[in-house]
Specification:
Helix 14 runs antiparallel to helix 15. Helix content is 43%, strand content 9%. The chain has 18 helices and 18 strands. The longest helix has 25 residues. The strands form 8 sheets. Strands 7-10-11 form a 3-stranded antiparallel β-sheet, with no helix packed on it. A 3-stranded antiparallel β-sheet has the order 12-13-14, with no helix packed on it. The protein has a two-stranded antiparallel sheet with strand order 1-2. With 584 residues, the chain is mainly α. It is globular, with a radius of gyration of 24 Å. The protein binds 2-acetamido-2-deoxy-beta-D-glucopyranose. The site of 2-acetamido-2-deoxy-beta-D-glucopyranose has 6 residues, from helix 11 and helix 13. Pathway: Protein modification; protein glycosylation.
């Protein structure tokens, strides 16, 4: 039973209580103890019902609410009828992971330690050179502001600190987070990035640790992001402009990616489940209805175009991909099905329809030297004659697809999807193994076989004219030579390992790790590689927060015991932040 949905927040009363306490303190002139009382009161405002049973924040944590409380802001376009997460008895999902006798051997433990040490090294560098900033600049050894300056790296790495058992650093991070002021930013707020990195990071760390302070900060941030939905049709724009939001001037965008709107549902739904406040779920459920209504009406039925008109609610564009701009919109379909306990059948249907349409229109078999049975994700454009044209381009971002198909295959009991997931994951492993750096470039072109079913012997004459020289066999061009510390390939390997228990996946993860650690290491941390075609390539001054939030976490979990963040108990958001599945 989803009894965590019951109950209501009582946030509204807390300012009155604080005002009362302040008056009392001024009158009684008891400053010290009163300051403590006010902070304590603020910290204890609106205990969410499901969390009430867990311990209150430790007294040494000084919780300071944000300077603007969005839960009290005027709504210009309030919803007519608030939708709540579906209730009922949870579906019994098939088991996702294969368990069995997987004892930790010395080699596995040593490998896991190496990965943990790389995390510690990265974290210590961030602490020393960039603490409180959004990112570490790993070459100039300073901090960067890339995401509103609230310290994105701290929150993005928070659950990894917990999982890797770095509790002192976790507590230090919580003390910092307890004082974040979400209203102290002059920049517009990127709804998608802030949701997946900050809100997802807070929710996950709360789910893992039960630390109340994190929940309070998640609610404050959730209320801030909720303001983005205050538009005439209740669909959010890409950027939350707080001035517009406060003045009723917000509208949805006419060109926005599918992922920007389609990758908010896990975070908002989980926040509703934890707090019992349905409004977050209601907000993203309206996005889902927009996608659901149009899924069969697009130029490639089953798929959603790369960008769409959220304002006029139209989807007539002709570009289709599972890569940048679309990726997590698809990823969230099976994951939402799991997070809602299988109680929303629309998610199941949308998943099947989308993954079948993507299979038939976007997946292709690349011509590879040993004619391996691989798959990659291409890009499709619908031309004037309504013919779908596939560009055989591989994108690192699309390497998540193997894990998505495999997970969906397990949850929905479709072995065929698991097989596709395996072939897709092997496609990305092939790309990594092909280069002497053991790294895959950000974007490359290859040759598509006639069919994804039939053998496709390697034929150098099949390479198009203009094929670049000195590339690994099968590659036509490398459009973007960088490796940006991205997680998607190791993410899919992690899924395949947990789902099958076949050791070849761990070996593949280790080969990736050897390439990654060798090529990205800098004096103090790790950095983007400029050109994966050559060993010892120069670095770029970037270490995005997903390095510690995702890449190192998935690698670490690949060398963990199966029960550590089991896929039967947890569902990861697109920034690798695990949320508790209902009933677990
Ligand atoms: C889309 O088509 C599928 C069958 O392919 C159907 O089950 C589903 O209900 C349709 N969706 C809508 C919104 O009509």
């Amino acid at each position: 039973m989803l009894n965590q949905f019951k109950g209501r927040l009582r946030r509204r009363y807390s300012p009155i209580i604080v005002f009362f306490l302040v008056s009392l303190c001024l009158w009684g002139n008891l400053r010290f103890s009163c300051t403590t009382a006010i902070v304590e009161s603020a910290a204890h405002r609106e205990p969410p019902p499901s969390a009430a049973a867990t311990a209150p924040p430790p007294p040494e944590i000084r919780y300071v609410p944000s300077s603007y409380d969005w839960s009290l802001a005027k709504l210009w376009y309030p919803v007519q009828t608030m939708m709540s997460p579906p209730r009922g008895s949870l579906k019994r999902f098939p088991q996702v992971q294969s368990y069995g006798t997987l004892n930790a051997d010395d080699l596995t433990i040593a490998r896991q330690n190496q990965i943990r040490n790389a995390f510690i090294r990265s974290w210590n560098a961030y602490k020393a050179k960039a603490w409180g900033k959004d990112e570490l600049a790993p070459l100039t050894e300073t901090g960067k502001k890339t995401l509103n300056g609230w310290g994105a790296q701290i929150i993005d790495a928070l659950d990894t600190l917990w999982i890797m058992d770095m509790k002192d650093d976790f507590n230090m991070a919580v003390r910092h987070i307890a004082m974040i002021d979400w209203a102290a930013t002059k920049d517009h707020i990127n709804v998608f990035e802030v949701t997946i990195r900050y809100l997802g990071g807070l929710i996950s760390a709360y789910d893992l640790s039960g630390e109340q302070t994190l929940l309070y900060k998640a609610i404050e941030l959730g209320d801030t992001l909720y303001a983005a939905f205050d538009t005439p049709n209740r669909l959010p724009p890409h950027w939350l402009d707080t001035y517009k939001a406060k003045n009723g001037q917000q509208e949805a965008d006419t060109h926005m990616s599918g992922a920007a709107g389609g990758s908010l549902a896990l975070e908002f739904t989980r926040l509703s489940q934890i707090t019992g406040n349905a409004k977050y779920y209601d907000a993203t459920e309206r996005l889902k209805q927009f996608f659901h209504k149009n899924q069969n009406e697009t130029q490639i039925p089953g798929l959603w175009p790369h960008t769409m008109n959220y304002q006029k609610e139209q989807m007539d564009k002709t570009m289709y991909t599972l890569g940048a701009g679309s990726d997590s919109m698809y990823e969230y379909l099976p994951k939402m099905h799991a997070l809602l306990g299988g109680l929303d059948l629309e998610y199941e249907k949308m998943t099947v329809k989308a993954l079948e349409a993507a299979r038939d229109n976007l997946l292709f078999r690349p011509m590879s030297p040993n004619d391996e049975n691989l798959l990659l994700v291409g890009k499709a454009a619908v031309n004037k004659n309504k013919v779908v044209e596939l560009a055989p381009e591989m994108e690192h971002l699309a390497c998540f697809a193997g894990g998505m198909y495999a997970l969906a295959g397990k949850l929905l009991d479709r072995g065929h999807f698991v097989d596709l997931g395996s072939r897709l994951t092997r496609g990305c492993i092939w790309a990594y193994d092909s280069f002497e750096t053991n790294l895959m470039p950000e974007i490359a072109e290859v040759v598509a076989c006639e069919s994804r079913h039939n053998p496709c012997p390697y034929d150098p004459n099949a390479l198009p004219s203009g094929t670049a020289k000195n590339l690994p066999a099968g590659f036509v061009r490398v459009r973007d030579t960088s490796y940006r510390l991205r997680p998607e390939a190791v993410e899919s390997v992690f899924y395949m390992w947990r789902i099958t228990g076949d050791r070849k996946w761990r070996e593949a993860a280790w080969r990736m790790w050897e390439g990654i650690s060798r090529e990205t290491e800098t004096e103090i941390a790790y950095a983007t590689v400029d050109d994966v075609r050559y060993r010892g390539s120069p670095h770029l001054d970037s270490m995005e927060t997903f390095w510690m939030g995702e890449t190192l976490k998935y690698l670490y979990l690949t060398f963990s015991q199966h029960h550590v963040i089991s896929l039967d108990d947890w569902v990861f958001n697109t920034e690798a932040h695990p949320f508790k599945r209902p009933g677990r």
